[in-house]
């Protein structure tokens, strides 16, 4: 196969054949198609798009680049355990998986959740859980099966043998401006999820400023593309489109988000996080054929918390250990003369600022800071006093605070006066 010819055909808007796509992914995984060539092909795909057939072909070529997990025949007390997974397309403050996996396990399903790290301005579930002292992301397949049968939930990294093509392409996309593409996101997510081998899959497709695809039409197209890929592979797949204009909850950043997820598991937590967690749990339980169980009850009766503690301990973590805290906290306040109601909090800006503070990576291979991130004191719809606290910036690197504040310029909308409504104006205090 002629590598330059394949790139040029996509550049010129032609539909690639299955053989060309299979060859490009296979050769890239084997090191015979260089990073620069794959980057050029990815950019051509971003600009020219892919047909449904090409996207399906890309997904199956990526999945075939490695082995698949075997989750068949999981049993507890002699009965077959249904497996169901959820995947979010990525957001800011999206700590839903942390409480959702043990919650669904407490309702009787097994949740094998292969998760990722921070990408761009969005957080990563593995980075969040690694804030817990001792917790390990790597779980070999036999231990994963045992944990699913004993505890019912595993959140871990995909082993090196599972979809190696995505691991390499994902890292390349992160540094070449080629993340925002429906066929590339759909093939990336679905190749991993289908390789994982769960019986059913629920997708949380984000829409809004903090999502990779900000507009509703693109998010819907992404959802439909992934649902078709799942159905074609024989996996029951459903999708919810959920808002990502403002961060979820009041915490953005690894340890801060773990603490908020624990509040949810203790029966409290911010209403938007609780609502999305229970909505996704209901979808997952319906997909697993367990829809008689009410997940809201399991959040207040302590059984979801019990699964969380067992899930963390099974992977070496200490659920009782204090979480790391940042060494410096800087508070952003409303202008002294402006009391009012918060009308908007731009998720993208908050995600960028949290990344700058150390919650994400600025360069590939950077370490994240467990305690870094942003605490939100006033969410959209909530009142703020003149000079009142809006955000607290947590970091170990105080020299980054100015850049984080700059990323947040204009991110908070405040409508002067006592009640929320239209016509907010942007205002960021000191
Ligand atoms: N999450 C993924 O796993 N892949 C993408 O391309 C985007 C979000």
Largest sheet: 4 strands, antiparallel
Helix proportion range: 40-55%
Looking at how many chains there are and whether they match, the oligomeric state comes to single chain
CATH architecture of the largest domain: 3-Layer(aba) Sandwich
CATH homolog superfamily of the largest domain: Nucleoside phosphorylase/phosphoribosyltransferase catalytic domain
Strand order of the largest sheet: 8-11-13-9
Strand content: 15-25%
Instruction: Give Rg in angstroms.
Output: 22 Å
Overall SS class: alpha+beta
- Uncertain spans: 419-430
Written overview of the protein:
- This protein is α+β, with helices and mostly antiparallel strands and 430 residues long.
- It has three domains: 3-49, Transferase, Pyrimidine Nucleoside Phosphorylase, Chain A, domain 3; 75-314, Nucleoside phosphorylase/phosphoribosyltransferase catalytic domain (Pyrimidine Nucleoside Phosphorylase, Chain A, domain 2), CATH 3.40.1030; 328-426, Pyrimidine nucleoside phosphorylase-like, C-terminal domain (Aldehyde Oxidoreductase, domain 3, Alpha-Beta Complex).
- The chain has helices at residues 3-11, 18-29, 35-48, 52-63, 96-106, 125-129, 141-150, 164-174, 182-196, 216-232, 254-265, 271-287, 295-300, 303-314, 347-357, 401-407; strands at residues 75-76, 79-80, 84-88, 111-115, 153-157, 200-207, 236-243, 251-252, 328-333, 340-345, 373-376, 383-384, 389-395, 412-416, 425-426.
- Helix 1 packs parallel to helix 3 (35-48), helix 2 (18-29) runs parallel beside helix 4 and helix 15 packs antiparallel against helix 16.
- The termini are far apart.
- The relative contact order is 0.14.
- The protein binds uracil.
